[in-house]
Amino acid sequence: PYYVDMNQNLFLQASLHSSDQNLTVFVDTCVASPNSNDFGTLVYELTKSGCASDPTYALFPSPRSDVARFGFNAFSFVNRFPSVFLQCKLVVCRYHDYSSRCYQGCVSRFKRNADS
User: Fold this and answer.
1) pTM of the entire predicted model
2) Which residues constitute the domain of residue 23?
3) What region holds the ZP domain (predicted)?
4) Is 102 contained in some domain?
5) What distances in angstroms separate CA 115 from CA 46, 108, 109, 110, 111, one per listed residue?
6) Do 89 and 39 meet the contact criterion of CB atoms below 8 Å apart?
7) Of 81, 95, 99, 110, which is most buried with the most CB atoms under 10 A?
8) What is the 3-state secondary structure (H, E, C) of the chain?
9) How many distinct structural domains can be found in the chain?
10) How does pLDDT run across 24-62, given as a tens digit for each residue?
C-alpha cells in the first residue's frame, strides 16, 4: 500500500518491458474503486478513452516511448472506505505508427440518434 493525504498529488508511471524497442505505451482508461476485486460496481473514472474525466488528472512528458507518466490528486470514496484501488488499461502500439490508438489521444465517442 501507498499512504497519502487527501488532495496530495500522486504521480504514477507505467513501463513496458519488451525486447522490441519499437513499441510505445498509452494510458487509455483508469478507474478507481474502494474494492480491489470489483471495478464495476462503485468506481470513479479518472480517464476514459484517453480523455481526462477527473479535473486533476494529467499526462506528463516521458523520457522514453515505452514509459507513460500520469498523475492526479488523492481522494476517497465519501469517507466510508479506507482504501482506493486503481486499475488502468494501457494500449501498446508500434512507435511512430500515427494511425494507431496510441497517437489518437482523447477519443470522444458520440452516440448517434436512433430516430430515422
Assistant:
1) 0.83
2) 8-96
3) 1-109
4) no
5) 32, 21, 18, 15, 12
6) no
7) 95
8) CCCCCCCCEEEEEEECCCCCCCEEEEEEEEEEECCCCCCCCCCEEEEECCEECCCCCEEECCCCCCEEEEEEECCCCCCCCCCCEEEEEEEEEECCCCCCHHHCCCCCCCCCCCCC
9) 1
10) 999 999 999 999 999 999 999 999 999 999 999 999 999
What pLDDT is recorded for position 112? 55
Overall average pLDDT of the 80-88 stretch: 91
pLDDT of 3 over the 90 cut: no
What CATH number did the domain enclosing 19 receive?
2.60.40.4100
Nearest to 53 by CA among 44, 41, 62, 66: 44
Beta-bridge partner residues of 88: 30
For residue 23, give the nearest of 101, 107, 83, 110 by alpha carbon.
101
Q: Grid coordinates standing for 35?
A: 474494492
Spatial neighbors of 31 by CB under 8 A, at least 6 apart, are 39, 43, 44, 45, 46, 86, 87, 88
